[in-house]
Design a protein that fits this description.
The chain is an alpha+beta fold. It is built from five helices and seven strands. A seven-stranded mixed β-sheet has the order 1-2-3-4-5-7-6. The two termini are 28 Å apart.
Length: 190
């Protein structure tokens, strides 16, 4: 994700994802992963994670996350272009924090935030972050955390420019190989 200049921002909006969006969310995820994980995850593993077979599994998982979330405090939001055909170009999934050092009663987590690579810098990521914050404040959350690949400097810069900061927590994402991740946080209410 990159910072957009005012002339780069395009019209669009965020809405709750629908079951019919599962294939679009998978498309966004696969394109974003191919970009974000390139050079970080071995090419053969990345090809496996974003294959047609894997995509079918991700599509089913997104449909389930949308139609049967674990709780009413779990959300999937879609960033959509303003002009018809109203293409889904990004998404965020969020809900209660899952880390042992966070309290899921007031700490929320952005599980995944993705925008199609050629659509970054157009305001979709910012709209998604604002919509997540608004949604989770309504659910009673006060802070948000997100894990980002340590090597994904574009995402980290975007989050930091949006008021997020690293909180010192580090970990390893296991995607068939260990990938270093860092946790960022922000306050969304008092």
């Amino acid at each position: 994700m990159s910072s957009a200049s005012p002339s780069d921002v395009t019209a669009g909006f965020v809405r709750p994802a629908r079951a019919g969006d599962a294939a679009s969310l998978t498309r966004v995820q696969v394109l974003a992963w191919r970009s974000a994980f390139a050079g970080i995850v071995p090419a053969a593993l990345l090809a496996e994670l974003t294959s047609d077979e894997a995509s079918a599994m991700w599509r089913d998982r997104w449909r389930e996350a949308i139609t049967n979330p674990p709780t009413s405090r779990h959300h999937v939001l879609a960033a959509v272009t303003e002009a018809p055909p109203r293409e889904v170009v990004g998404f965020a999934s969020a809900g209660p924090a899952t880390d042992a050092d966070r309290w899921p009663g007031t700490d929320g987590q952005v599980y995944e935030l993705r925008v199609i690579p050629e659509r970054t810098g157009q305001g979709h990521g910012s709209r998604l972050l604002h919509a997540v914050a608004d949604t989770l404040v309504s659910d009673g959350f006060h802070t948000l955390v997100i894990w980002a690949l340590e090597a994904d400097t574009a995402l980290r810069r975007f989050l930091e420019s949006s008021g997020w900061a690293a909180d010192g927590a580090r970990g390893e994402l296991d995607v068939g190989t260990s990938v270093p991740v860092v946790r960022l946080h922000t306050a969304i209410s008092e």
